[in-house]
From TrEMBL, chains A, B:
Residue ranges constituting the HTH marR-type domain according to the UniProt record: 7-139
UniProtKB keywords: DNA-binding, Transcription, Transcription regulation
Pfam families (alphabetical): MarR
Membrane-spanning parts: none
Protein name from the UniProt record: HTH-type transcriptional regulator MhqR
Origin species: Phocicoccus pinnipedialis
Lineage: superkingdom: Bacteria
Gene3D superfamilies, per the entry: Winged helix-like DNA-binding domain superfamily/Winged helix DNA-binding domain (1.10.10.10)
GO molecular-function term, one example from the UniProt record: DNA-binding transcription factor activity
Gene name tied to this protein: mhqR_1
Length: 145, 145
DNA sequence: TCTATTTAGTTCGAATTTGAGATAATTATA
DNA sequence: TATAATTATCTCAAATTCGAACTAAATAGA
């Protein structure tokens, strides 16, 4: 198969894999009344600690207006709080609350187990190459855009 | 790094790569007045020929209500037509029109070149493993769900 | 210092997407 | 054959997402 053709096939496989996993996660997380985006925000705050709104947006790659929206939903649910930075009053830090942490502690193990089961069809070295190759490609995409 | 941890990292990299590419494609295709979903439908009809609505839905993994919606948009734009199957009157075949083909012939080379440039940071064997690994994972996900 | 530019986040309207529940046609079963 | 179950698609309301334009605050440059 020619190089160009392989790239296109890889892209199609990437899209399909992502979409299929997304559907699985959506179903799973819906039980807890969360959308995939809400979960992504909670997850990054849970693992990385308090972040500015902008950092959250860069992490999960959604429009900034969507970031405002999803954080508002999470505040309503009591899972995060938003605090203005005293030094730079344009920026806000978002942190997970105890209630948010409790939900994540309930969801996360099942979520992680599901993800792991998706990848358990790969050998160790395949998985490693997959991970590294994806990192290279996403860095490349960010560079080009 | 432990196996489980690598799976989670691979998943995060997958999501991030997909989202970044999606944003790039959206920008690119917007110039032609198409959404990413509309483009995906056109692309599959362009490369695979006429398909039923259900097959299109399975290919691009969106809700069936969304399939109805996006095909309606494409009909309005004159890029596809919908024809009822004479044998099974529940099913409809969707085909790309000449106008749709013309648009695809205009967009597709640039689109393909962009995709290829995203993957040109990988060696041939890395790309091959990436593609095959993604196929395995998406098959695995479909099996589990 | 004054003004221009940049940065962080929000508002708003329009477009898209979803899930739940129809409808209509086909197929399986009693 | 009559009825039940399945299949293909659609309708609808609600939720999400986006892009464009905005406000407010900080920083850079004259």
């Amino acid at each position: 198969m020619k190089r160009d053709e392989t790239s296109l096939k890889a892209f199609i496989a990437l899209k399909r894999t992502n979409d299929a996993i997304d559907i699985a996660i959506r179903k799973d997380i819906r039980k807890y009344g969360l959308s995939v985006t809400e979960f992504a925000v909670l997850e990054v705050l849970y693992t990385k600690g308090p972040l500015t709104i902008q950092t959250i947006r860069d992490r999960i790659l959604i429009a900034s207006s969507s970031t405002t929206y999803v954080i508002e939903r999470l505040i309503e649910k009591g899972y995060v709080i938003k605090e203005q930075d005293t030094k730079d009053r344009r920026t806000f830090y978002v942190s997970i609350t105890d209630a948010g942490r409790t939900v994540m502690e309930e969801i996360f193990p099942m979520h992680a187990a599901m993800i792991q089961s998706f990848f358990d069809c790969l050998e160790d070295d395949e998985l490693e190459i997959l991970k590294e190759a994806l990192k290279k490609v996403s860095a490349r995409v960010s560079n080009i855009i």
